[in-house]
Amino acid sequence: MSSALFTPIQLGGITLPNRIVVSPMCQYSANDGCMSDWHLMHLGNLAASGAGLVVIEATGVTREGRISHGCTGLYSDDNEAAMKRVVDACRRLTRNPIGVQLQHAGRKASTQFPWAGGKGLGAKESPWPILAPSALAFGEGWDTPREMSKDDMRAVVDAFVQAAGRARRIGLDAIEIHAAHGYLVHEFLSGLTNQRKDPYGGSLENRMRFPLEVARALREAWPRDRCLGARISSSDWIAGGFEIDESIAFVRELKSIGFDYVCASSGGLVPQARIQVGPGYQVPFAEKIKKAVPIAVRAVGMIADADQAERLVAGGQADMVALARGFLDNPRWVWHAAERFGVKLEYVPQYARSHPAVWPGSKLARPAAAGG
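The chain above was modelled as a monomer; its predicted structure follows.
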């Protein structure tokens, strides 16, 4: 049985052996931006998954650009050394590419961990000043950010470049700008959060100005023999927000700059948005972008079933799929998908005894796969 999901894809100067990507997932387990033993376990487990690309969680390019006290960063030598320790360990488990998502959280910075409420940090929780395109709070009870000056914007662009340099020294294969989910770059793109009266606000061309400055700086700094991508919010799911037509215009600009792929996500900008969640609910965004712009497109959003993923890649709706909670639920998702489609996939040697070719118990554990 042939499988589109298990065909290689070239992204810039790297090759993914399959179309399955581990989506960046915040773990809220870092110490002043430094990865911990939790990251060693978490990412080591995912590195052994067989996924074509593992993307490290949203990583702050400045200390103040982190979402929470527990978010990873690449703004210090200590951050760099801690991430290198984890990445080096992952390299011993896989030959497949590893990337990192770089971000600034904007007005959604200085927040609690999700399991502690997920709101803005209180006065006794060591909050910090936050920045955004406009002085608009995310919601009731959240701190109001300071509107960014041109000097602030230049400093953030420089911080992205410096973080890319650290990623390069670590030896990562890809970097991905986080331009989604209501964080800083996305805040500039949407008219709901960008109400500036200068050349960085108003028209779509103006709202794209700062995001494209970040994009151009990263393209100049990041080697062409690696991979450069972006995650975007294709819809704000609310009237007056950033929507698919504007997203397509933004992706065209990223393509012209030299980006290798985009990941079509959505939402996260405002708390009152009502997202229509369901199986593959964001795939139509990926499909529209893929039809409009000649760039590799990754789909994400409740893609949990291998047959579902195979259909959307084989049908040309997207070039890749990304899973987040699907991997938390089942870190062996790729192994089981390969088994489902009769694809020969090598396991890490320590776990080779569980390969369906040698372990009869796989037919009991997954009778559907055994039945073809």
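The chain has one domain: 4-345.
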